[in-house]
Specification:
- This protein has 20 helices and no strands.
- The chain is mainly alpha-helical and 430 residues long.
- The protein is globular, with a radius of gyration of 24 Å.
Length: 430
């Protein structure tokens, strides 16, 4: 998928994600065997893997810096709405009827994609400056601020194209060798490997913070923390509603707060909630709780504050940053590589939770997950630049060590041309 995004374009790649998704829904409607069900879910998993980095890329390239964060937060908001919608449908319809309804939603998205323009950033990266400029101004309107951003993008891409992989008419063997050499040199550049490291850490933090763990095991967790007699299904619905409300709040906070502030404040609440739940579960299991602390409201408040931290910052920031941090040249490749951490840690966090819970107990499992979150946040603190209200080109320049004047003037810097500067890419420390 990663070469496809950069080669075919955002729109065609987006259309291709619909095919396995629609096929999966129709297979769910028609098959009645375990193998068929697994195949259908596999196809939908492939579609989600393809769509993972693509959604944030498209949103970030089509929106202006002031509104980009709010639009990118809609990725996590749409996931929340989807979970709540699926749970609500499951209460009234069979899973086959649910699959039919969801297939219509996927078909609607197909129609929307067909009538959506190509990303102006991708068009400009391919040298189609007039078409890219036309769509850029159609999406954002035309004022001096937008004109300056477009000028910077075009100037940067003109200098970047001077050191592209090479002539596509060369023999296939030569092209492959040049491509491998290009990838080897690219992997050494801070504008490529630093965003990937940051996104690996953000996605690891996101999964071990437990948004998918609590979604998968909410009934068991509530029974262990609150008590076996509590109405866990009612609490599950209440948490879904809280998640929706907090996601809507996150859209507002993303527009008003700095990314780093929101990330580290929500991360602190998450870690404290983890430790609070661990302490309560340990005390409950060892008979250390006495009135008034042996009360159902204490674990419910801890779970509620934990869900608040996950939804407001921890689940929204990674999807926002993933659309902002990669340079245009490596946006598809870098996004595709980093999303491996999302899928891998999803598997590890969700599958290891019940095993750890049985092996060492819920308190120590929570402590371990909290430790992973703290470790990731500690490294992110020193690597992640602030991206709020900055253009994508400005963020890209900061990793490369450029200023806008460098490629506007196209003059040699420190004895090196722009292309040579791009190949060397001096390191930036945060």
């Amino acid at each position: 998928m990663t070469p496809m995004v950069d080669t075919l374009g955002r729109k065609k790649s987006h259309l291709l994600t619909i095919l396995p998704n629609m096929t999966g829904w129709f297979m769910l409607l028609m098959v009645n065997s375990v193998a068929g069900l697994i195949t259908a879910r596999f196809l939908q998993g492939v579609a989600m893997g393809m769509l993972g980095p693509l959604g944030s890329i498209i949103i970030s390239e089509m929106t202006d810096p002031k509104n980009r964060g709010a639009f990118l937060t809609s990725v996590s908001l749409s996931l929340t709405i989807g979970v709540l919608f699926s749970h609500a449908l499951g209460a009234y319809f069979s899973w086959q009827q649910n699959a039919l309804i969801c297939s219509f939603i996927t078909f609607t998205s197909l129609l929307l994609i067909i009538y959506t323009p190509e990303s102006p950033s991708w068009l400009i990266a391919k040298g189609r400056y007039d078409k890219g400029s036309e769509i850029f101004f159609w999406l954002r309107g035309r004022d001096r601020e937008q004109e300056l951003e477009l000028e910077d993008m075009i100037a940067a891409q003109k200098s970047a194209r001077k050191s592209s992989v090479g002539d596509q008419k060369q023999p296939i063997g030569t092209r492959i060798r040049r491509l491998l050499s290009y990838l080897r040199e690219t992997s050494k550049k801070p504008e490529f490997y630093k965003p990937i490291i940051i996104m690996f850490l953000l996605y690891t933090m996101f999964q071990f913070a437990g948004i998918n763990v609590i979604s998968s095991y909410v009934i068991d967790i509530v029974h262990q923390l609150v008590g076996p007699g509590v109405n866990a299904k009612l609490i599950m619905v209440a948490l879904d509603i809280e998640r929706l409300v907090c996601n809507i709040l996150a859209v507002f906070l993303m527009k008003t707060m700095k990314r780093r502030t929101l990330l580290f404040s929500s991360g602190a609440i998450c870690v404290l909630s983890y430790l609070g739940k661990a302490g309560y579960a340990y005390s409950k299991a060892n008979g250390l709780l006495h009135p008034p602390f042996d009360n159902q409201w204490i674990p419910l408040i801890l779970i509620g504050s934990y869900m608040f931290s996950l939804t407001v910052g921890i689940s929204s920031i990674p999807f926002t940053i993933s659309g902002e941090i990669f340079p245009l040249e490596y946006r598809g490749l870098g996004g595709g590589i980093s999303v491996l951490a999302l899928s891998l840690n999803f598997f590890v966090a969700v599958k290891s939770f019940p095993m750890l819970n049985l092996a060492v107990g819920l308190p120590w499992t929570y402590c371990l997950y909290a430790g992973v979150v703290v470790a990731c946040l500690s490294v992110i603190y020193f690597m992640l630049p602030e991206t709020k209200d900055r253009t994508l080109q400005d963020i890209e320049n900061s990793f490369r060590g450029w200023t806008a004047e460098d490629y506007r003037s196209a003059q040699p810097l420190n004895g090196k041309s722009i292309v040579e500067m791009r190949r060397c890419s001096s390191h930036i420390l945060y």
